[in-house]
Specification:
The complex is a heterodimer of chains A (about 250) and B (about 350).
Chain A lengths: L2 H10 L9 H15 L10 H7 L3 H25 L8 H23 L1 H7 L10 H9 L6 H31 L1 E2 L4 H4 L8 E2 L8 H4 L1 H39 L1
Antiparallel strand pairs in A: 1-2
Chain B lengths: L15 H11 L1 H11 L2 H23 L4 H5 L3 H12 L6 H17 L11 H12 L1 H6 L4 H7 L7 H10 L8 H4 L4 H9 L6 H7 L11 H17 L6 H18 L9 H5 L4 H8 L10 H21 L6 H18 L14 H4 L1
Helix pairs in contact in B: 1-5, 2-14, 3-5, 3-6, 5-6, 5-7, 6-7, 7-19, 14-17, 15-17, 15-18, 18-19
Classes of the chains: A mainly alpha (about 250), B mainly alpha (about 350).
Amino acid sequence: MPETEAISITETNDTTEDTPSFIDEYAPIAKEGVWTNNAVFAQMLGLCPLLAVSNSVVNALGLGIATTLVLILSNMSVSLIRNIVRPEIRLPVFVVIIASAVTAIELIIHAWFHELYLVLGIFIPLIVTNCAIIARAEAFASKNTLGKSFFDGLMMGFGFTLVLLALGIIREVIGMGTLLSNAHIMFGDGMQWLTIEVFPNYDGFLLALLPPGAFIGLAFLLAGRNYFDRCLKDMAKKKSQDLTTEKSTA
Amino acid sequence: MFLAQSSPYLKPGLSVSKMMLVVTLLMIPGILTATYIFGYGVLVNIFLAIIFALSFEAIILYLRKRPVKVYLNDKSALLTAVIIGVALPPLAPWWLTFIGVFFAIVIAKQLYGGLGYNTFNPAMVAYAILLVSFPAEMTTYWQTSTMLANQFDGQTLSFIETINFQIFGQLPVGMTIDALTSATPLDIVRTSVLNGSATIDEIHAQGKTFGMLGGLGSEWVNLAFLAGGLFMMRKGLISWHIPISLLATLGFLSLLFGSFELDSNPSPLFHLFSGATMLGAFFIATDPVTASTTPKGRIIYGMGIGALIYIIRTWGGYPDAIAFAVLLMNMCAPLLDYYTQPRVYGHKADERDDEDYS
């Protein structure tokens, strides 16, 4: 983690308790958000937009960034008001905050990325219904400081965006044989060179672009993640066994 | 010499392996008829599908750490491969078969746990995926040999030319890709008659669509599969429930709707003897793993497929509907089994379930 960012976050951190070192406090949040408690992989939340919009890398990136911004905004607002709002009415308040954040982001995309807005369509307003956002508001932001909540929103959004991107890459390469097609609707007209033809003269495999392709792709990603985790666990087990045998022989 | 046996003297039923083999063998009349009518491409399709299917099955069994030889020997992959090979367009390029078999064996069958655990009929999953992904390839390579011969002074594709076209994509000398493609009778009916741009009589006059019973060409294939299917039924390999209820429902619905507007609805015979109706009714819908297992459930299951075939053929977006109808009813099979469990002799029907039986 860069040193400068570290300092800025500790400054906004309003806890006066004698806190452990910065990395000890923030590294778990990052690890949770990106891997162990990933919005999609572990919590299986926000699947609707994930499955609907991940048919190309640009769409995936667009929705991923929008969701991340909403997460950060809503997490920070919820964290700020967490001591003022009574617990009985907290959920409606969260919903209002999230809806306002989504509306703001939608207007921004509408104004500056009009073509992206046309492609993503209904799925930008539908970010409101992404359970991952209200889950973070309820489970994290309403119990933690502003800095931590900001960082949690950033990392959760980053984890969500990563999965969206992975699925987007798989579906676009298999479905259209390209990468980053329509790059200009996100990065501007000068960036059309970003589009890569992975397989020239590819006829296309429509299934990957249709909803079933999203489900199959996500299933394979989940299976891959579980396999990877199991391998890690096996390795850790072996290590501890080796240690104990070493101890016993010693 | 004398086996010391005690009662009961029951004849053991066919093993899975033997049953799969017999069912596959009973498809041979249909396959030969299809080869006669559509050319050698059918055989190439089946051959390729078998090779791909057995390889995928072996690879995935090895990955799943199952005994490869034992499970390969149950011959279910063989049957799936043959069904895919017959269902694909006769001049389908090799990669179509490859992708189809991959989805059938790897995704629809082995990833669900192998034979006996799959919810969906593997061959139909393959067909549906191919039809959705490659609609052009899946609906155009259906030229019959006789029609090809009419266009080219009696010249048809030889075996070598067929292989060259399907595997290497080389067109035979003097032929264009358009000559090798033509719409199926069901396709013609779907796109012109049911959309109202032509009447049945107008199409009849062209003489390219209707045979004596059903679609030109495919009626003979359907008859051959019907023969194989009836033999299977007589030998007790399949029960009568599914095929009969399926065909009866399809025939009844086409009679019912057809009698209102004769001009724009093909006859019941056309529905029964076109496309993959007989193959579907006897060889696909009766798959013991994915179909309903109780007698009542089987009748409802067959009726559902028959009704869905008629609905999709008439009002749906695809000319033939066996795959979608079978997959949709596969989903209902567990529920049908649950609600139609026969009463065990000597037991009272569970009171809670009483109302559900009605």
